[in-house]
Amino acid sequence: MYMFKYVLKRLGLMIMTFSIIFVMCFVLIKMLPIVVSAATGDAADIMYAQLEARGYIMNVVRDPVAGTYTFDNVPVMIQLGNYLTRIFTEGDFGIGTSMVQFANQPVWDVFVEKLPPTILINIYSSLIGVPIGLGLGIFAALKKNKWQDQLINVVVILMISLPSLVFGLLVQYFLCFKLQWFPITMKSGYDYFTWDMFRSMLPAVLSLCLGSIAAYTRYTRAELTEVLTSEFMLLARTKGLTRSQATVRHALRNSMVPIFPMILGEFIGVLSGSLIIEQMFSIPGVGGLYLSAINSLDYDFFMLLSGFYTLVGLSAGIIVDISYGFIDPRIRMGAK
User: What's the first-to-final CA gap in the chain, in angstroms?
Assistant: First the structure.
């Protein structure tokens, strides 16, 4: 009962937070001028007609000689009402206006097309980073204060201090340019589950997972080290368990309680992708689309992707909090 009330409360707070962020983004972005430089001639006529039909502009007048338009903006709150009405009644998230390659295309269709590469590179990153990070963390905890532990700590501190942008540059220079093990950019096409496509994704995957490996190693070492020095571990050893038996049966299970929610949050948050890494390796995902939408002031793309990233971040936080109660039965979220 406590958990049910807690979940409802968190969902209500998430919806309220998402609504506030969404409205703020819409109002602030609509205070900027409308940009429709991606189309000319008949294409521009179609685009302006669609914008006017969607309640973004009014009193559209075209100069037949210069081919330019003059128009008045609809009040922002009326635009917000029209926008939400279209989403909930028609599933219409708008059209592209400022990016030439997506002009007059439905925003939702482009988003769905760009989503698989972002999901794949982040899932591959998690699948590689989680076991390596946990393994290094366990090894460092078992070799505490020895040279192996010191070496791992130095490497971890170095990797945590560097952003993924630096890892991307190093991977591009050494693995792609010098050694030529991988292509610098991702292979084009939609055959996402072929070896050539996976190989072309690996540079971006490695750039993303190096930071995750360092984080998992640090947290695992810290938690396991604390558990190994607990009193119940001494009791387990006095009852006849060997060091390896006590570690596997008791220490690992207890140390994973705070670590597994972090891993779960990582998996839930894979959809958010990495904006910079996708741009560096020409990944045709939503990260690059988001940056292009911001630079081009393409408002409908910006709103959809901002809502997507916000929702993923909020959902990951809730999933992590709720998972504590399922991983450790002693924890009752929402109980007094």
Answer: 12
